[in-house]
Design brief:
Largest sheet: 2 strands, antiparallel
Structural class: mainly alpha
Helix content: 40-55%
Order of helices and strands: HHHEHHHHHHEEHHEHHHHHHH
Distance between the termini: 50 Å
Number of helices: 18
């Protein structure tokens, strides 16, 4: 039976065909034995959508276990320093390749089929969402991996695939989003919220909210060009964000009933993906007053104390817990000592039923703040910055209510005091700094926004300086002192393409872009170069 989530197609990528060791035609013939005479062979266009939306939110969290260590959101303490904490990778492994797999395989031909059916049936709203998903995939794959297979992707019968440049990938992202915006503005044909809602687990078929999402994604992508002065246009970034989310009610969220493994939050304790991770010294320093002089009320609702009640983070350069006694070792991200917390309330996003975002209003307001700051409009920048901080305070409260998590709500008094403190939110627009914008955006994306968060830190070269302060844009961040051996002393700029599809079946194409070099992950991406 042709199932929109699991069916295999010969056109997906080299892995799909190469792993079977047969030609494209033979592969298709082989797969045809799955035809079920007792079930329909055609899937309604709207039924493709739900599993793809699920993976749009879930896949970044799978890879976030690794990207989150490059950005020092959390660390994995052990008897030896882990490869990812040292800005390395796991050779011969698909770790860090989940988004690659899901975009080329789970989305793959399924997304193409959905879009073709939607266009044929004049379902412009569903077609627009499909184009957003296609753009979403290319955007985050290219920011993570660099060169991509685009022009030759999804070709039936083809078993090796050439890579396209990152510049081409961005052009394709903007082309798709332009088309998506035009389609999502249409109300003619067979546009029907009820029809699309059957598969739309984020917005219930509301094309206006998807239109805002498309504008937000385009604005975010446009803001990636800050290192390319001839291509960066902050006014266009601001215009897109102004057409996007109007408040937290527009946040793109997926909920989890947690009645089985597959409908439980990937970050929750039941899935056991984060029980051994611990928060870092860096993120604690952003929130405990070390940087701002103000204790952030979100710290005690997002981060976790040690059993002795003190909030600490681990040094990524030290093995294990760095000699801390048991009572001083930070609890796990669910809020419990050791690997505890099973079937107990979690903390913030690290709970079985916490709603997970794909994009948030707070995140987009910080994008606008940075763009306005760079354009010299400090008044607009400050207003957007304050909106972002305020919105994320409310976001933290909302997420801790998703399953009545083990954290008290931020009170109105705490919220107002924090927003009124000029060390956090200056009253004079001229005193706003890039450091404030980017560190608050880091906090707002901590634990979930791994793709954009890593994009941000690389745009600033990890340790780049703020001209206004003379200090680092990310105060307290320091690269590992013991980098992974393959790095050759260089920092990480990309994740290598997925091992089993590319290094096993597509090596010649990889070799053409330098992908066989041991230090390929340290090769800077086009988007970061002037």
């Amino acid at each position: 039976m042709r199932n929109p989530l699991t069916r295999l197609r010969a056109r997906v990528l080299a892995l799909t065909v190469g792993a079977l060791g047969v030609s494209g035609t033979a592969c298709q013939d082989f797969l045809d034995v799955n035809t079920n005479p007792n079930a329909p062979q055609e899937v309604s266009a709207n039924l493709y959508l739900a599993p793809m939306l699920h993976w749009m939110v879930m896949s970044p969290q799978w890879d976030g276990r690794f990207v989150g260590r490059y950005t020092q959101q959390f660390t994995l303490p052990g008897a030896v320093l882990s490869n990812w904490d040292r800005m390395g990778y796991d050779p011969g492994s698909d770790n860090g390749g989940q988004q690659w797999r899901d975009y080329y395989w789970t989305f793959g031909q399924n997304l193409g089929d959905m879009m073709r059916k939607a266009e044929a049936e004049q379902r412009w709203d569903l077609l627009g969402v499909g184009q957003v998903l296609r753009a979403w995939g290319w955007l985050w794959l290219t920011t993570t991996h660099g060169e991509l297979i685009i022009s030759e992707a999804f070709r039936p019968g083809q078993v090796t695939f050439k890579y396209d440049s990152q510049e081409f990938a961005y052009r394709e992202v903007f082309r798709l989003l332009d088309e998506a915006i035009r389609n999502l503005q249409r109300a003619d044909g067979a546009v029907d919220q009820a029809f699309m809602s059957r598969g739309d687990v984020i917005y219930g078929g509301d094309r206006q909210r998807w239109l805002r999402f498309a504008y937000g994604l385009r604005g975010m992508a446009r803001n990636h060009f800050t290192n390319k002065t001839s291509l960066y246009r902050p006014a266009e970034v601001i215009a897109d964000i102004d057409r996007s989310f109007t408040g937290n009610a527009d946040d793109a969220l997926i909920g989890y009933p947690a009645t089985s493994n597959d409908n439980t939050n990937f970050l929750g304790r039941t899935r056991a993906n984060f029980v051994n991770f611990r928060q870092t010294r860096f993120v604690v320093g952003l929130m405990d007053g070390t940087v701002t002089g103000v204790v952030d009320p979100r710290m005690s609702r997002m981060l976790v104390p040690a059993p002795d009640g003190v909030f600490r983070g681990l040094d990524i350069n030290q093995v294990g817990f760095g000699g801390l006694p048991t009572t001083a070792q930070p609890n796990n991200l669910h809020g419990y000592p050791g690997t505890g917390g099973l079937q107990l309330p979690g903390r913030y996003l690290f709970d079985d039923r916490a709603r997970m975002p794909a994009m948030t209003y707070a995140q987009l307001q910080f994008v606008k703040a940075e763009a306005a700051f760079r354009a010299g409009d400090r008044t607009t920048a400050l207003a957007a910055y304050r909106n972002g901080v305020a919105a994320h305070l409310d976001f933290v409260n909302a997420r801790n209510l998703d399953n009545n998590q083990n954290a008290t709500q931020i009170s109105a008094a705490e919220r107002n005091a924090y927003l009124s403190d000029t060390r956090v939110v200056p009253t004079d627009p001229g005193r706003l700094t890039l450091t404030q914008i980017m560190t608050q955006k880091y906090i707002a994306q901590w634990g979930w926004g791994h793709n954009e968060l890593w994009m941000d830190m690389r745009r600033f070269g990890y340790t780049g300086l703020d001209p206004a302060t003379g200090g680092q844009v990310y105060p307290g961040f320091a690269p590992p002192t013991n980098l992974f051996p393959d790095n050759g002393g260089q920092l990480v700029w990309r994740i290598r393409p997925r091992f089993n599809s590319e290094y096993v079946w597509n090596r010649a194409a990889l070799d053409a872009i330098g992908g066989l070099a041991l230090d390929f992950h340290t090769k800077p991406l086009w988007i970061f170069q002037p």
